[in-house]
Structure formats: structure tokens, C-alpha cells
Amino acid sequence: MARHIILAALILLMSCSCTAASSAVSARTEPKRGTAPVPAPGPAGEDKAALAQRYIRAYPDFFVAYKGGYLVTKDGGRILFDDGKAKDFDGMIVDTAVGDDAFDPEDALHWDYPAGEDIPTPEKPPVGDPGRIRPAAVFEYMYGSTAAERKGAMRDVQWVDTIGGKPKKIRVTTVNGVDKALTRVSHEIMNLPDDKKKALEGIVYRVEGPYGYYERPVRDFPGRTSGHAYGIAVDINGDLAYFAGGHKGEPYLYRNNVPRFLVEIFEKNGFIWGGRWHSYDAMHFEYRPELLMNGQSSRRSDSSVNCPR
Ligand SMILES: [Zn+2]
Q: pLDDT digit string (tens) for 94-111?
């Protein structure tokens, strides 16, 4: 019964040309990567020193400088910023045999993340997958290279909805203040006016989930660690989300039911949204401030990133 009410609300919410509302409740089948063609990325348009600064600004607890082609870590270590290898990004995004250690920090910034911009539509789907690449050297250094190391840093954050009269929780890492950033997101949602909260039914209210920390590789990519395993990712709605490849045998079609104001709350607090990926994953948000710090970019100014409308 509740499901039908949610579904009805969803249908009302969907002003885009999303067809077949029943597919919105098409269960929690995971995306099959590779079914969506990935367009060729454009050049980053920044020099390496400027790109490297994004990590230093985004993760001041870990990175202190960029020197001689390396990110210098707080404890005196260094991580090669750009291995200089020409990479076939189409192949790397769809090739399930390629693991995280094939990527360097520079690769992860290959696609600009379009923070604050319009929500993609079926007619204007996202270009590239900014944030789906997580270089192992950087992420294992910060969040832990083993499950035991990562697990020790997790904390439960109170989420916006209740279950059985008790607040829901999401487990995320305390490293880099991810737990605090998610708490701010949670508070901002709880402080929204009633009409906006109502619009979030079936998205963050009255849904299965949310899901946070979970030790697993990226689905279909056994060599890539999921953002969930680092404790930096959140899936807001378990069973009512759209994702690329969720409609087998059909041509690529971008679909989404997450409203812009919700995406902006997350982006303002350091989280990117999987709905801005060509291989879209509209339930997925991930703490990736380095992708929201492109103030040096020739294409966007800091203000458009830090102060989304
Ligand atoms: Zn996810």
C-alpha cells in the first residue's frame, strides 16, 4: 500500500520524459557497466601543479605540497601525480579487468565535475564519469588499505528519516570529516520547508536505506574499491533509483528523479552525485571535494562551485 502511494508521488514528481514509471521500482538490480557508451573526455585544461592543488586544498590533513611531480604527504611520503601513460578512458571505464592501481591522481580529475549546473536530462545526458575513478594510492593512504583499517574509522550519522520511531543511521568514515559533512547534509534536509520535504518522499523519505559503509568492490569491477568501502559514499534510496544499465536490452537513456535542490545540498557539503555520470547512478553521493575545487579551472570560477544556486 505504502509503495503505491510512493509510486503515485513519484509519477507526479517526474516531469521529465522518463517513461514507464514501473521501472522506477524495478528493484535494486545493480547497474551493468558497459551498456552505456562513454563519450570521449575533453582535456583537463589546467596544468599539473594547479590540478594537484585540488588535492592539497581538499585534503589538508594528508597532503601538504606538490613537488617534482609528486603529491607530498603530511608524513613525508609522496605519491606520483601523473604516470604519463596515455590511457584509453573509454576502455578504462568499461574494462572490468582494470583496477584502481592503474589510475593516478591526475586521472581522477580527467573529467570536470559540473557542480551547480543544471540536472542532466534524457536529451542532455552527462558527458564523462567524473568521480568514478578513485586512484588507490590516494584513497588507501587516506582511508585505509585494509578493511580492518577502514572499519576502525567509521561512525554512525543520524539521517533524516525515522524507522520504527527511531532515527535512521548511515555509517561513514570520520576521516576528512566525512561524518561531519554528512551531518550537515542531514540537518539541511531536516530544515527544508515542508513542500520540499514532501518532494523528497520516495527519494530520502519513505524509502529503503540509506546505505553507507560497505566493504565491497565496485559492482562488476573486482579490482576497484567502491566508495562505500572507504566510507565516503551514500546511497540515498535503495529501491527507487535510476542507474545506467538498469534497463537491459534498451538503448541508453538517462533517467533521474532526484531534484536539483537536493543535489545542491550535497555538493555544497563536498559530495559529488552519481547522477552527473554518463554511467549514471542517481542514488549515489560520494565525498570528493577535490572534484568540487576547480577554482583554477579555465572553465569555471570558484564561486560557481562553492555557492551553487
Ligand atoms: Zn552507491
A: 888 999 999 999 999 988
Quick count: other Cβ atoms within 10 Å of Cβ 70? Answer: 16
267 φ/ψ angles, rounded to the nearest 5 degrees? -60, -40
In terms of DSSP bridges, do strands 63-67 and 221-225 run parallel, antiparallel, or are they unpaired?
A: unpaired
Q: Looking at residues 172-193, what average pLDDT do you find?
A: 97
**pLDDT attached to residue 246:** 62
* Ligand 1 geometric centre to CA of 123 (Å): 24
| Ion ligand 1: residues, CB < 5 A | 233, 235, 284
- Measure CA 248 to chain center: 23
Contact 232, 288 (CB under 8 A): yes
pTM above 0.90, yes or no: no
- Cβ distance 267 to 292 under 8 Å? yes
CA of 283 to the centre of ligand 1 (A): 6
- Which pLDDT band holds residue 306 (cuts at 50, 70, 90)? very low
Q: Rounded to the nearest whole angstrom, what is the distance from the C-alpha of residue 30 to the centroid of ligand 1?
A: 10
pLDDT at 171 (0 to 100):
98
Q: What's the 233 CA to ligand 1 centre distance in angstroms?
A: 6
Whole-number pLDDT of residue 294: 61
Cβ 23 vs Cβ 247: under 8 Å: yes
| Ligand 1 centroid from CA 172, angstroms | 12
| Preceding peptide of 210 cis, ω within 30° | yes
- How far is the centre of ligand 1, averaged over its atoms, from the C-alpha of 286 (Å)? 8
Please name every residue paired with 156 in a beta bridge, in sequence order, or none if there are none.
Answer: 171
Distance CA 137, CA 102 (A): 10
3-state secondary structure of 243: strand
CB of 246 closer than 8 Å to CB of 31? yes
Domain ranges in the chain? 2-306
CA of 47 to the centre of ligand 1 (A): 31
| Alpha carbon of 226 to ligand 1 centroid (Å) | 8
**Containing H/E element for 217?**
strand 217-218
